[in-house]
């Protein structure tokens, strides 16, 4: 039976409109060389980039173009869960990004992991729907590890900062540089800017009797200096009693742990270098983890997407002011990007005596002064 001409005409009109729409989309995402060059120059200024080697600026421009093409292709997909953008890593290849910024390690040389059951999720446990330790004042502003692979030190310090606020009421920004300088070598399992483990850092803090503030021991973005001698009596700030793992491969137990305190985790972060917003769902091709971060909360979007709140150490011009939402309730027991494989957290008693803060020094000094006057 012959198809009526009007149906053929309608089909051709629909096909033409479809092709026109595709053409418009392709035109919108295709950028001229001049436009890309302008974007590159503006990005260089915003990120304070200055290349000294001959031809390096041009080489980085070509990498920038490749990353921009990836961003445009990703962001053109309808109903995507996250957006990519020109982060400070937009001039790096994936291999360079991995080699410089992803130095987290699972190995623990000091002691075997102790898996605690305090946060073991049990049937019937009632947990908050949402938690955000930033709103409770237990998270210091986002820091920037720079080109040093010291994520392990930032993840350890972040977890201790949060716990100390919960237990003592005082939020103190701690020294990652002390960990980089003083907690390194074959015996420690940490290797400065070449990588390490947050768990090993907790062990150092316990053995060392605490960790000082970054005001006393500021960050320098390298690990070439010797460990500074620190006057224990006048500058020691924060101590912890011990540390342990949350149950491995268990997102519900991780949720229970995060409901009580910020938790240090290891994630696979190779695909995160250009992330700027939304819920990151992948891809994550490996599950062994290569980057230490702190989980400082969890929640659900208006679209019903469950997520972890990740505090990173790549500065405030990455992600959402230095944070990201990572997909929660993943179909694999590892959690997305391995977030649930081996969470670890410090422990501290409710007593404030482990904290030697400026206010406590003033208080103690007042007693010394009164005693001297009475004498």
Features:
375 residues; alpha+beta; Helix Hairpins; Cathepsin B, Chain A; two-stranded antiparallel sheet; 10 helices; 9 strands
Task: Describe this structure as you would to a colleague.
The protein has 10 helices and 9 strands. By secondary structure, the chain is of the alpha+beta class. The protein has 2 domains: 5-92, Orthogonal Bundle (Helix Hairpins), CATH 1.10.287; 131-354, Cysteine proteinases (Cathepsin B, Chain A, Alpha-Beta Complex).
List the helices and strands and how they pair.
Elements (H helix, E strand, L loop, with lengths): L4 H25 L3 H14 L9 H20 L6 E3 L9 H8 L29 E2 L18 H18 L7 H7 L15 H11 L23 H4 L6 E4 L5 H8 L4 E5 L7 E6 L10 E10 L5 E6 L11 E5 L16 E4 L10 H17 L1
Parallel strand pairs: 5-8
Antiparallel strand pairs: 1-5, 2-6, 3-9, 4-6, 6-7, 7-8
Helix pairs in contact: 5-6, 5-7
Provide a compact summary of the structure.
With 375 residues, this protein is α+β, with helices and mostly antiparallel strands. It has helices at 5-29, 33-46, 56-75, 94-101, 151-168, 176-182, 198-208, 232-235, 251-258, 358-374, and strands spanning 82-84, 131-132, 242-245, 263-267, 275-280, 291-300, 306-311, 323-327, 344-347. GO terms for molecular function: cysteine-type peptidase activity.
The mean pLDDT is 85
Question: Which CATH architecture of the largest domain?
Answer: Alpha-Beta Complex
Report the biggest beta sheet as strand number plus sense, adding barrel if it closes: 7 strands, mixed
- By secondary-structure content and strand pairing, the structural class works out as alpha+beta
Helix content: 25-40%
DSSP E strands, number: 9
């Amino acid at each position: 039976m012959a198809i009526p001409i009007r149906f053929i005409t309608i089909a051709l009109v629909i096909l033409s409109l479809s092709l026109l729409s595709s053409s418009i989309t392709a035109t919108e995402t295709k950028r001229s060389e001049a436009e890309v060059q302008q974007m590159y120059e503006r990005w260089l200024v915003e990120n304070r980039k200055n290349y000294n080697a001959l031809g390096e600026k041009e080489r980085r421009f070509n990498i920038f173009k490749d990353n921009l093409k990836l961003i445009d292709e990703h962001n053109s997909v309808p109903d995507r869960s996250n957006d990519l953008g020109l982060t400070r890593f937009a001039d790096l290849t994936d291999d360079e990004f991995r080699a410089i910024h992803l130095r987290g390690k699972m190995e623990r040389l000091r002691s075997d992991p102790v898996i605690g059951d305090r946060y073991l999720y049990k049937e019937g446990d009632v947990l908050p729907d949402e938690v955000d330790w930033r709103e409770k004042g237990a998270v210091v502003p986002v820091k920037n590890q720079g080109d040093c692979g010291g994520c392990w030190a930032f993840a350890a310090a972040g977890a201790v900062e949060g716990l100390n606020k919960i237990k003592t009421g005082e939020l103190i920004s701690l020294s990652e540089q002390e960990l980089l300088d003083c907690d390194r070598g074959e015996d420690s399992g940490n290797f400065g800017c070449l990588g390490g483990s947050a768990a090993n850092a907790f062990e150092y803090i316990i053995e060392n009797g605490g960790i000082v503030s970054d005001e006393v021991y500021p960050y320098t973005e390298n690990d070439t200096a010797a460990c500074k001698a620190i006057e224990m009596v006048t500058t020691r700030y924060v101590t912890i009693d011990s540390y342990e793992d949350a149950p491995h491969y268990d997102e519900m137990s991780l949720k229970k742990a995060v409901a009580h305190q910020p938790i240090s985790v290891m994630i696979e972060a190779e695909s995160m270098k250009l992330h700027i917003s939304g819920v990151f769902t992948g891809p994550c091709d490996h599950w062994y983890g290569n980057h230490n971060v702190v989980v400082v909360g969890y929640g659900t979007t208006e679209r019903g997407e469950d997520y972890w709140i990740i505090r990173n150490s790549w500065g405030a011009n990455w992600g959402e002011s230095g944070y990201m939402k990572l997909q929660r309730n993943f179909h694999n027991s590892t959690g997305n990007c391995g977030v649930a494989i081996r969470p670890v957290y410090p422990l501290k008693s409710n007593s404030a005596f482990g904290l030697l803060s400026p206010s406590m020094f003033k208080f103690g000094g007042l007693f010394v002064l009164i005693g001297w006057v009475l004498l």
